[in-house]
């Protein structure tokens, strides 16, 4: 109590009444979350407008005699003829470590009932992307813990990898799995007091989703101990289009704080299709000219300026990274629609999920042929490169031969072996939700598959045998797994150790 | 009558022709309006309507208003009017109004530029500082 009084006394003592010249305006019309304001002669683009009573807006259209502004929240309280003030500030969101573990709205206001966010650090929501000089090539892997992705479509820190697919094909699951795996790695590094490992902090941005879906994701993160390394920015379907438009930019601003401080961050935008729809709605209400599919002309620029903010900074610029996993929902697998093609061309690769594969029980339902990572093997450890180098080719051959084999013609032994190998790899790539693999276990699985360990196992039993083998290695030769994790390559000693332990397992099985 | 973009464009050109250094001249306005009425054809009315809208916006943006908590005396009003004499905005008129909510001091409004010297505004700023906004 005394300290509060002392603070008030101090503020009062420092306060000197001053004449403030303010730029004001008058609301001429308001509707659909958009206000048209006369006045505000000196306002800048994207400047915040104070509508009074805690209601804020964002100046988006600067016209000759009026300003078009979106009201961010509480639009129903804005009246015609009301006086508004320009604030002289661009829109900012709170940032910093205090944001971790919190669920906030795009303005950084807490939604989780855990009280105010204790941070004084702010980042502008809109900011130019880092320049060319400050960047370096992506070289460090971002382990998702999903075998199919880490082996075939590796993601590097600072990369932008699109997750694209129809509804209910497991897009969010992949992103959430990646977040959970980062949390697992962070936790392990903390327990081992490993200062060399760079923790990855995650930002999950929910755009236009059902509140129940967001609650499910938050619960999944919390139950797996990942929420304390994650910030959730939620603009749900019940929020205004303006809030949905702002959400990914706010998430990026929060992620950038980690990058600016030399740390690594991962931002998931779930999803940018709904973001484009929200922006289209806002633009139409602001009477901006519309283009293809009624999207405004700058929809490409909207997404490119957002995703260009992901970067891998050079050591001289702090060495931080910001990785993006944007999600796009397609309609009946049409990847050539307007927004999907835009985002495909902006990102450094895509993970394409197919409904057919999903219904066949292949989960993650990743289509290996269409999925690609343009950063590629630069973001893989040597160990993974060694065991996964041929997998993509083998799987491509398998899919081709599988079609051919359907005709029932006689196949030579080599073709049969290729098909059987492909079936087992496909089986190995099946993975349960929220159960990411450590990278060393991924390497062991693929190493065993390449050595023909699963060749005599019935296909449907492959995963069961794989789990037993991993359990056996965890119990008997944990040091080997540790060694693979530390060395990041398969030395002759590790290989002979693996040979021994696999032989031991086979003799016992 | 429907006002089209062309009408607005013509009104803007008319506005530019009657302005000297961005300030509209009363004599030029009279002459221009007469000219449009005589030679403007069937669109004259629509163009003039757009022109009037512009003029209204200009007047609103340049009107000088003084708000006080209590009625100012004639002498005080004259003194304040003297401060603005010589500025182009004086033609848009000076109005004096009373708003007890300002508590004390004066609020000077030149169009949408507001210089607030009222006690109410100072208290508002102080409140924001105390709440850390």
Secondary structure topology:
The complex is a heterodimer of chains A (509) and B (133).
Chain A: H1 2-14, E1 20-31, E2 34-39, E3 47-52, E4 55-62, E5 66-71, E6 83-90, E7 92-94, E8 103-104, E9 122-124, H2 147-152, E10 162-165, H3 171-191, E11 200-207, H4 211-223, E12 230-235, H5 241-260, E13 264-270, H6 272-285, H7 299-307, E14 321-329, H8 338-346, E15 349-353, H9 355-359, E16 372-373, H10 382-388, H11 391-405, H12 413-429, H13 439-450, H14 462-476, H15 478-487, H16 492-508
Parallel strand pairs in A: 8-12, 10-14, 10-15, 11-12, 11-13, 13-14
Antiparallel strand pairs in A: 1-2, 1-6, 2-5, 3-4, 3-6, 4-5, 7-9, 15-16
Chain B: H1 5-18, E1 19-20, E2 23-24, H2 26-39, H3 44-62, E3 64-68, H4 74-84, E4 94-98, E5 106-110, E6 113-116, H5 119-130
Parallel strand pairs in B: 3-4
Antiparallel strand pairs in B: 1-2, 3-5, 5-6
Helix pairs in contact in B: 1-2, 1-3, 2-3
Describe the overall structure.
The complex is a heterodimer of chains A (509) and B (133). Chain A is of the alpha/beta class. Chain A folds into 3 domains: 21-90, Beta Barrel (Elongation Factor Tu (Ef-tu), domain 3), CATH 2.40.30.20; 94-380, P-loop containing nucleotide triphosphate hydrolases (Rossmann fold, 3-Layer(aba) Sandwich), CATH 3.40.50.300; 385-508, Lysin, CATH 1.20.150.20. Chain A contains 16 helices and 16 strands. Chain A is elongated, with a radius of gyration of 26 Å. The model of chain A has no long low-confidence stretch (mean pLDDT 92). With 133 residues, chain B is an alpha+beta fold. Chain B is 53% helix and 17% strand. Chain B has 5 helices and 6 strands, in the order H-E-E-H-H-E-H-E-E-E-H. In chain B, strand 1 (19-20) and strand 2 (23-24) form a beta hairpin. The radius of gyration of chain B is 20 Å and the shape is elongated. Chain B starts with a helix and ends with a helix. The interface between A and B is medium-sized, with 18 and 18 residues. Strand 1 (20-31) of chain A pairs antiparallel with strand 6 of chain B, so a sheet runs across the interface.
């Amino acid at each position: 109590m005394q300290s509060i009084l002392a603070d008030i006394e101090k503020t009062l003592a420092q306060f000197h009444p001053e004449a403030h010249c303010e730029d004001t305006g008058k609301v001429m019309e308001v509707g659909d979350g958009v206000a048209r304001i006369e006045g505000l002669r000196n306002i800048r683009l994207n400047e915040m407008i104070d509508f009074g009573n805690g209601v804020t807006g964002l100046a988006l259209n600067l016209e000759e005699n009026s300003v078009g502004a979106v009201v961010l929240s509480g639009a129903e309280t804005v009246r015609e003829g009301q006086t508004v003030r320009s604030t002289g500030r661009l829109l900012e969101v709170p940032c910093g470590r205090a944001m971790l573990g919190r669920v906030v709205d795009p303005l950084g206001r807490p939604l989780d009932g855990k009280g105010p966010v204790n941070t004084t650090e702010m980042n502008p929501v809109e900011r130019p992307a880092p320049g060319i000089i400050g960047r370096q090539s992506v070289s460090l892997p971002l382990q998702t813990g999903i075998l199919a992705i880490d082996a075939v479509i590796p993601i590097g820190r600072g990369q932008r990898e699109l997750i694209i697919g129809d509804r209910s094909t497991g897009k969010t699951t992949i992103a959430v799995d990646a977040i959970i795996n980062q949390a697992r790695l962070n936790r392990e590094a903390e327990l081992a007091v490993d200062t060399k490992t760079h923790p990855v902090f995650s930002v999950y941005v929910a755009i236009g989703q059902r509140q129940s879906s967001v609650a499910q994701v938050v619960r999944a993160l919390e139950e797996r101990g990942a929420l304390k390394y994650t910030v959730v920015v939620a603009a749900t379907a019940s929020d205004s289009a303006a809030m949905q438009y702002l959400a990914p930019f706010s998430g990026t601003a929060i992620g950038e704080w980690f990058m600016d401080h030399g740390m690594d961050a991962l931002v998931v935008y779930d999803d940018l299709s709904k973001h484009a729809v929200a922006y289209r709605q806002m633009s139409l209400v602001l009477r901006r000219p519309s283009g293809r599919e009624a999207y405004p002309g700058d929809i490409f620029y909207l997404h490119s300026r957002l995703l260009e903010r992901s970067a891998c900074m050079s050591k001289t610029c702090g060495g931080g990274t910001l990785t993006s996993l944007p999600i796009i929902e397609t309609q009946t697998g049409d990847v050539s629609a307007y927004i999907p093609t835009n985002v495909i061309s902006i990102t450094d690769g895509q993970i394409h999920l197919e409904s057919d594969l999903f219904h066949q029980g292949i989960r993650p339902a990743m289509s290996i042929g269409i999925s690609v990572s343009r950063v590629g093997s630069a973001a893989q450890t040597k160990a993974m490169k060694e065991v996964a180098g041929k997998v993509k080719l083998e799987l491509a051959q398998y899919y081709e031969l599988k079609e051919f084999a359907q005709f029932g013609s006689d196949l030579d032994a080599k073709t049969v072996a290729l098909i059987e190998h492909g079936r087992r790899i496909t089986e190995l790539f099946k993975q349960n939700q929220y159960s990411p693999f450590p990278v060393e276990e991924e390497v062991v699985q693929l190493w065993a598959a390449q050595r023909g360990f699963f060749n005599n196992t019935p296909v449907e039993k492959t995963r069961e045998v794989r789990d037993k083998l991993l359990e056996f290695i965890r119990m008997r030769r944990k040091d080997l797994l540790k060694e693979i994790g530390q060395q990041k390559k398969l030395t002759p000693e590790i290989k002979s150790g693996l040979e021994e332990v696999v032989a031991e397992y086979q003799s016992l099985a | 009558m429907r006002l089209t973009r062309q009408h607005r464009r013509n009104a803007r050109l008319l506005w530019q022709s009657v302005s000297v250094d961005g300030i509209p001249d009363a004599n030029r306005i009279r002459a221009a309006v007469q000219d449009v009425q005589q030679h403007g054809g069937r669109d004259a009315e629509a163009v003039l309507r757009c022109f009037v809208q512009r003029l209204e916006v200009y007047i609103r943006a340049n009107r000088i208003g003084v708000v006080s908590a209590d009625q100012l005396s004639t002498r005080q009003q004259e003194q304040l009017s003297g401060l603005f004499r010589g500025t182009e905005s004086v033609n848009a008129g000076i109005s004096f109004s009373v708003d007890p909510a300002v508590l004390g001091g004066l609020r000077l409004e030149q169009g949408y530029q507001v210089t607030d010297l009222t006690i109410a505004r100072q208290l508002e700023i102080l409140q924001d500082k105390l709440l850390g906004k």
